[in-house]
## 1
Amino acid sequence: MNEEEIYEFDLNGYIILRNLIPPADVARMNEILDQDQAGDFPHSFQFLKLDPMFMDLMAHPRTLKVMRTIIGDWLRLDHSYGLQMTNQTEVRENLHGGLRTDQGEHQYQWAFNQMWNGLIVIMYALEDINPGDGGLICVPGSHKSNLNTYKPSVDSHLVANPSFKAGDMLIFTEALVHGTIRWKSTKRRRALLYKYSPGYSTWGKSAQLDQYLDLAQNDLQRDLLRPPYVGQRTPLDFPEA
Ligand SMILES: O=C(O)CCC(=O)C(=O)O
């Protein structure tokens, strides 16, 4: 991340980076998901096992470069899932997360001239999200809020509904107050979420990652699937971005 990007992430608790997934790959991923869902349209779904391209995305060199700045050299995949909605999808509109919620795991701190984070979300859009479409909402800057007993209402002027295009990624810290509102567009929402943790911690049950080990195609992918530990942990061998 360059200084401008770090400034933006520090200021807001999230940032959008453009053109991560080429259009042909977005189309192929949508095809694979449509085929797998066979006419159903679950709000949340699993996808990592469906095709090697999803494992490749987990280890995307540009993504890992950004994660290195945000989390550090010792990082791991925590869990992944997809989200999709239509304007018929029932949602409990909400804001959740925030600094030191979830047993203190969601963290955001600067020390020794670098940021320190807990669970980080990468949300890749597989369909465009236009202004006012709904879906993900957040309170920019709330990852540094000093009042953890208060959350604004979902329609507060403090709440943003970021828009970004298919193939772009939005990165946010779970220390950011965020949530979901109803999807309003006549087109569907679909996004892939990959969540990364520091190498020493886990949010999900880390044994759930074992099922993906056989699908890992190289040491980098295997290293991303390691359970959390500290002693003798080696940093990732980061690829050229
Ligand atoms: O994108 C959404 O609708 C909500 C995502 C969310 O709450 C999360 O990733 O923790």
## 2
Amino acid sequence: MSDVVALRAARVDDAERLYAWANDPVARSASAQGEPIAWDTHLAWLTAVLVNERRHLYVAERAGAPVGTARLDRADDEPHVAVVSLNIAPEARGRGVGRALLAALTAEARALGYARLRAFVKASNEASARAFLATGYALVGDAALGGAAAQRYELEL
Ligand SMILES: CC(C)(COP(=O)(O)OP(=O)(O)OC[C@H]1O[C@@H](n2cnc3c(N)ncnc32)[C@H](O)[C@@H]1OP(=O)(O)O)[C@@H](O)C(=O)NCCC(=O)NCCS
């Protein structure tokens, strides 16, 4: 499989695919809040994110097909830091898409002027930890995510 992944800005007409990916059980268990998400909650969230200048939401495409999503959120008290989230479509996982997406996201964050990227990864999420380490992030400390043990990873840009 090609490891070339392109990022484009998410749109309101991505709502259904983003909803399906977000409610995938593996994605729910990887995130801070593990409960299933209601459609109305999702739509309100997406609508707000798309107009929030502190948040950048992307859809990743490989060969023109959507394969996942990622987000850069400006850190509250550190305007040079962006917090990274990503979720690969269930059928596309385990084939290098996560690593390729993170590489593309690094270039995007640099272009936006960020100086550091930060990610929080549950200790149980081996695939995510490996994807961050493989794309140059360093493990910088422990954290908690939704009450579960997690680690903080950072990349200087
Ligand atoms: C975690 C996630 C982003 C990784 O993306 P991916 O496309 O599946 O992973 P890749 O194929 O790019 O592989 C990344 C690394 O994880 C390893 N890996 C992939 N699937 C794995 C699995 N199920 N278990 C353990 N390691 C795995 C790969 O071998 C690779 O390691 P390497 O670089 O040391 O060889 C993706 O699986 C996902 O979206 N999961 C659900 C949501 C989530 O966990 N998001 C991240 C929250 S911090």
